[in-house]
């Protein structure tokens, strides 16, 4: 192995697919592969797929040397022993030693971290976070995940499970979240909840929904309404779509104001599927956050769009060993 | 100065009084003095009073040497330059160099920190936190303050303002808090709000209040209802007082579950005036927190009473230099 290794392998293990990439020291992805995760077949199957993905991208590296392997995976990655616990939607999963298995398999250095934390780290090194030493990273997609960057590094918390921004309750009597709590911001603005809510409103709960173009954009089927549908409708000038997205942004702003008051971190970087939404949504996040944080924080609230998109997971995982 | 200094001076600068103490390395307070803060006369007056308080407790130290002076004060103590900003209820206060002034005045090492953080540090070193490397410290009194201890040290946050547990919003549409946000847990359970709420209920808003002994305990004047009144009534078996205190405890538990999900810290230590409340109140905090935190945290939720009482401020301030 060279003293100045030219690349690392990053794995982004999701519920349906494992994305693997060769990542250079500057953050460029120079080779990629995607394998099905087989999460329903249990940890052995997932680890075998991960090993295949690693072999595939390493194979394209030619004579270049590998600095190691970084793994991003949902769930809690224990800060003390590196075991992966509680990845949601992974079957038969107890405490699994992903790190040890892949180290023994490859002989390379392996570091494992929660996937949202990896994406946060990628933004910190190579994305929107490069200008900020401290920020709250939000992945706003199917759910709402997050990571906290303090002094340029992931704030893992004592057990490795810090940064669950989606499970900040913004209304103690709010709707039940899949986590068992009530009023979590995820339960209002996560993709599945947001879409259900829009469908309910369009089906008559709120008169403002009548005449909206959203249903047409979803082919007449409320179940097919996705945040992207809302974004397109909003960009086409649909006032109802704008309302719903602004309201969702404001709810995220409420949660972020609480996080800012706890951590004294006032910069938020928003990634994930919904981050492709029009600018006014991020403005709604920032306006609400600014109006609610403690006075000394007001002038320093900044909300920015993540820059790395889908590759943040791979790049951040590789950053763990780069 | 000796290499093993036998004492430090701790100052707890509050809105009405400055408490000063000589504190030995083991945390014992070996001498004390109290001076009025004169907060309404501006920073020069406050600093002069602080210098008097220091001189007074140093005077009793005999030949013992002093390791330095620790200052606890409300507001944000900047992490970068140590300036004290925004102490609530201190008149004519901009950014004040408390540290520099007292260092020049005494020639001793001076460290300044937010007062709630000082109390948290005192509990970490010498109180209920001595068994916990990581905990959320709550001062539940007139307001709701807090401090975060990670790895035995104060988590200040990048700007020095972290740990504002009282300003976790538990209902985005809740009552307006003095900070400008809505639904902050302080706006439900801080002493002034709690008392007002009880008075309103007793005056007829809720039938459950009728027949309660609370009003008698407050001499018939709803404005004189204090948390202690509630505690006494609850201990005497008054069901309404028990309800109100349990409900307040549960609200604190909601806020703490959010803090736990963000920080991955599941131990809470509760101090301040209301912490003298009966055990069932702390149980209500713990039960609610446990029912709401993310599943991996459930088994590790612990809520304990602070041990150091009123002296936590002095002892914690001294700990900054001990």
What's the gist of this structure?
The structure is a homodimer of 322-residue chains. With 322 residues, chain A is α/β, with parallel strands linked by helices.
How would you characterize the overall build of this protein?
Two copies of one chain form a homodimer. Chain A has about 325 residues and is α/β, with parallel strands linked by helices. Helices cover about 35% and strands about 20% of the residues of chain A. Chain A has helices at about 45-60, 100-105, 115-125, 185-190, 190-205, 215, 225-235, 240-265, 280-290, 310-320; strands spanning about 5-15, 15-25, 30-35, 65-75, 75, 85, 95, 110-115, 135-140, 145-150, 155, 265-270, 300-305. In chain A, the strands form three sheets. Chain A has a five-stranded mixed sheet. In chain A, strands 11-10-9-12-13 form a five-stranded mixed sheet, with helices on both faces. In chain A, strands 5-6-7 form a three-stranded antiparallel sheet, with no helix packed on it. In chain A, a hairpin with a 3-residue loop joins β1 and β2. In chain A, α3 (about 115-125) crosses α10 (about 310-320) and α7 crosses α8 (about 240-265). The two termini of chain A are about 15 Å apart. The mean pLDDT of chain A is about 90.
């Amino acid at each position: 192995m060279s003293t100045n290794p030219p690349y690392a392998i990053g794995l982004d293990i999701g519920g349906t697919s494992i994305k693997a990439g060769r990542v250079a020291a500057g953050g460029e992805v120079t080779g990629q592969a995607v394998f099905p995760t087989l999460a329903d077949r249990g940890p052995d199957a997932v680890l075998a797929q991960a090993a295949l993905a690693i072999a595939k991208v390493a194979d394209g590296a030619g004579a270049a040397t590998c600095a190691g392997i970084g793994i991003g995976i949902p769930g809690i990655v224990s800060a003390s022993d590196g075991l992966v616990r509680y990845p949601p939607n992974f079957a038969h999963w107890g405490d699994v030693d992903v790190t040890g298995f892949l180290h023994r398999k490859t002989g390379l250095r392996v570091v494992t971290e929660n996937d949202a934390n990896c994406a946060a780290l990628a933004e910190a090194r190579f994305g929107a976070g490069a200008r900020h030493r401290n920020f709250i990273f939000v992945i706003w997609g199917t759910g709402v995940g997050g990571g906290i960057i303090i002094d340029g590094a992931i704030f893992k918390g004592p057990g490795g499970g810090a940064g669950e921004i989606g499970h900040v309750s913004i209304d103690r009597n709010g709707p039940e979240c899949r986590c068992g709590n009530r009023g979590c911001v995820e339960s209002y603005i996560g993709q599945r909840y947001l879409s259900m809510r829009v469908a309910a409103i369009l089906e008559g709960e709120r008169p403002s929904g009548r005449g909206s173009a959203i249903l047409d954009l979803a082919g007449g089927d409320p179940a097919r309404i996705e945040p992207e549908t809302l974004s397109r409708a909003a960009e086409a000038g649909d006032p109802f779509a704008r309302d719903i997205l602004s309201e969702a942004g404001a709810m995220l702003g409420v949660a972020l104001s609480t996080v800012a008051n706890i951590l004294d971190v006032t910069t938020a970087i928003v990634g994930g599927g919904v981050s492709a939404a029009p600018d006014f949504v991020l403005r709604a996040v920032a306006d609400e956050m600014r109006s609610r944080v403690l006075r000394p924080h007001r002038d320093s609230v900044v909300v920015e769009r993540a820059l790395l998109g889908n590759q943040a997971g791979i790049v951040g995982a590789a950053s763990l060993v780069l």
